[in-house]
Amino acid sequence: MKSKIVTVALLAITLYSCGGSKSATPIVDAKKVVTTTSLEEGKSLYESNCAKCHKLYDATDFSKEEWKPIVGKMQKKAHLTDEQGTMIYNYLASKAN
Q1: What is the 8-class DSSP label of residue 66?
Q2: Both ends of the chain: CA-CA distance in Å?
Q3: What is the pLDDT of residue 19?
Q4: Exposed/middle/buried for 30, CB within 10 Å: 0-12, 13-18, 19+?
Q5: The pLDDT value given to residue 44
Q6: Residue 60, SS3?
Q7: H-helix or E-strand containing 42?
Q8: In a 10 Å sphere around its CB, with 0-12 CB exposed, 13-18 middle and 19+ buried, how is residue 86 labelled?
Q9: Which residues, 6 or more positions from 10, have their beta carbon under 8 angstroms from its beta carbon?
Q10: Closest Cα to residue 88, out of 18, 51, 17, 97?
Q11: How far is CA 11 from CA 2, 5, 8, 20, in A?
C-alpha cells in the first residue's frame, strides 16, 4: 500500500513538473525580408505602371504610412495584383522618410 502511495506521489510530482508554466514565451512573427531584387522589381513596376496615368512622385514626397493607402487605391485602378502592389509599396517605403 505504501509503495502505491509513493508511486502515485512520484507520478503526480513528475506530471506537475512537466506541465508548462503559465507565462509562456509569446510567439513573434518573423519579419518579412525584402530583397534587393524585389525592391528593383517594385521600382520597375512603379515606373512602368504608375507613369502611364500621371507624373511619378518622388518616394520621399510621402511617409511610409502615407504611401500605404495611396498604393492600395492606385493598385486597384491599375489592375495590379496584391503581390505587385506590395512590391511597389516596399520600394516606396524603403526610400520614404
Answers
A1: H
A2: 75
A3: 59
A4: exposed
A5: 96
A6: helix
A7: helix 36-45
A8: middle
A9: none
A10: 51
A11: 14, 10, 5, 16
Q: How far apart are CA 2 and CA 40, in angstroms?
A: 75
Residue keyed to cell 517605403: 93
* Model pLDDT, residue 35: 86
Residue written as cell 507613369? 51
Whose cell is 511610409? That residue is 64
Residues with Cβ within 8 Å of 49's Cβ and at least 6 positions away in sequence, in order, are 78, 80, 84, 88
Contact by Cβ (8 Å): 63, 30: no
Residue 29 confidence (pLDDT) = 47
pLDDT of residue 85: 95
What are the per-10-residue average pLDDT scores of the chain (97 residues)?
66 61 51 82 95 93 95 95 95 91
Cell triple for 28: 513573434
Residue 4: C-alpha distances to residues 8, 18, 30 (Å): 6, 21, 49
